[in-house]
């Protein structure tokens, strides 16, 4: 099951399949699409798994084992890649909250987001090669964008599984948070990204033209929120 929580501009999508360590089955893909439909209009999007053991443990092998033809395998890959593409193209800032291990397809799901926040005791790896397959949900290409071609090939080609600290060192994880305050810490970061003009900054960073970037700044400059914040800053400086 996939849950959607909406709170003051922040959408939180949670995969809750404890019996399968939050693995993704065909039904999960449909539910993720429905949750993303419901998240439209949010200023920031979080994707996470339920509990503290698994973010997403990959594809649900018990259900995906029914796929025995190339056509069926390709259709499944395109289906889930489409979900990841929707997350990657979400207008607001997207955040993967790595509450637990992110392995195989789970790592691919994580890198479809803009930012990855990890609990200090998680592990992450593109270990599909252990099953003699490869990433199929767009994760290999996105991994190259994040860590560079040679490092991405080494990680996915060997199936190396990294600790949170190792993943942060290579840039795969953006910030490691203490487990005992993890829930409070990721929510505080996500709320900041939802309540500030991070979405406009994202659009500029993604390749807006000079005119688009300047226009975005000008819209923010004349907003009530800007002048309220500016007044507070000027009062503090007195």
Features:
alpha/beta, four-stranded mixed β-sheet, 49% helix, Enoyl-CoA hydratase, Enoyl-CoA_hydra/iso
Description:
By secondary structure, the protein is α/β, with parallel strands linked by helices. The chain has two domains: 191 residues, 2-enoyl-CoA Hydratase, Chain A, domain 1 (Alpha-Beta Complex); 30 residues, no CATH class. Helices cover 49% and strands 18% of the residues. The protein contains eleven helices and ten strands. The strands form two sheets. It has a six-stranded mixed beta sheet, with helices on both faces. A four-stranded mixed beta sheet has the order 4-6-8-9. Strand 1 and strand 2 form a beta hairpin. Helix 1 runs parallel beside helix 3 and helix 5 packs across helix 6. The longest helix has 19 residues. The N and C termini lie far apart (54 Å). It comes from Mycobacterium lehmannii. Belongs to the enoyl-CoA hydratase/isomerase family. Could possibly oxidize fatty acids using specific components.
Question: Could you say what the CATH architecture of the largest domain is?
Answer: Alpha-Beta Complex
What's the overall average pLDDT, rounded?
96
Please compute the radius of gyration using only Cα atoms. Answer: 19 Å
Low-confidence stretches: none
Strand line-up across the major sheet: 1-2-3-5-7-10
Spell the H/E element sequence.
EEHEEHHEEHEEHHEHEHHHH
Largest sheet: 6 strands, mixed
CATH class designation of the largest domain: Alpha Beta
What is the helix fraction of residues, given as a range?
Answer: 40-55%
Going by CATH, the homologous superfamily of the largest domain would be 2-enoyl-CoA Hydratase, Chain A, domain 1
Structural class: alpha/beta
Instruction: Choose one word for the global shape.
Output: globular
- Termini Cα gap: 54 Å
What is the name of the CATH topology of the largest domain?
A: 2-enoyl-CoA Hydratase, Chain A, domain 1
How many distinct folded domains?
2
Strand content: 15-25%
Quaternary arrangement of the chains shown?
single chain
Number of helices: 11
Find the count of extended strands (DSSP E, 2+ residues). Answer: 10
Organism: Mycobacterium lehmannii
Family: Belongs to the enoyl-CoA hydratase/isomerase family.
GO molecular function: enoyl-CoA hydratase activity
Pfam families: ECH_1 (PF00378)
